TrEMBL record:
Gene3D superfamilies from the UniProt entry: Transcription elongation factor, GreA/GreB, C-terminal domain
Pfam families: GreA_GreB
Residue ranges constituting the Transcription elongation factor GreA/GreB C-terminal domain according to the UniProt record: 61-135
Domain of life the protein comes from: Bacteria
Coiled coil: none
UniProt name for this protein: Transcription elongation factor GreA/GreB C-terminal domain-containing protein
Length: 137
């Protein structure tokens, strides 16, 4: 079985949510959401038991993989973006943490620095980016 890779922050959030749900389990006993809450607890326990936590220290890497922090530059307007590619459980675009299933991550995984990637966005157009930097834990 492949181990899921979670950031330290992602692991901490899941552990805190699980502890919160466990503490309030008795309150949920007669709640209509009981089944949902129990399945959420099982899901979190399953994720945590089959995951490893990335260390905080990051260093230059040869290619993009889950856990990489990448800096890309849009080829037309030269705008730069930095994203960390994470497991879907901790994806949060507001914090520049994108899912491995996102279009940018799918295009970048396995690529190296100075590689052009083409990303088709939902509106149908294609955006081209150059991978400027890759940092892995």
């Amino acid at each position: 079985m492949n181990m899921l890779k979670l950031t330290q922050e992602g692991t901490r959030k899941l552990e805190n949510e699980l502890q919160y749900l466990k503490k309030r389990k008795k309150e949920f006993r007669n709640s209509p959401e009981k089944d949902f809450i129990m399945s959420r607890m099982e899901e979190i326990e399953r994720v945590l038991s089959s995951s490893i936590t990335w260390p905080v220290v990051r260093e230059a890497a040869d290619f993009v993989e889950a856990g990489s922090t990448i800096t890309i530059e849009e080829t037309v307007y030269k705008e730069r973006y930095t994203y960390t590619i994470v497991h879907p459980y901790e994806a949060d675009p507001r914090d520049n943490m994108i899912s491995v299933h996102s279009p940018i991550a799918k295009a970048a995984i396995g690529k190296t620095v100075n590689t052009l990637i083409c990303v088709q966005v939902p509106a149908g157009e294609n955006l081209t980016y150059n991978i400027i930097d890759i940092q892995n834990c």
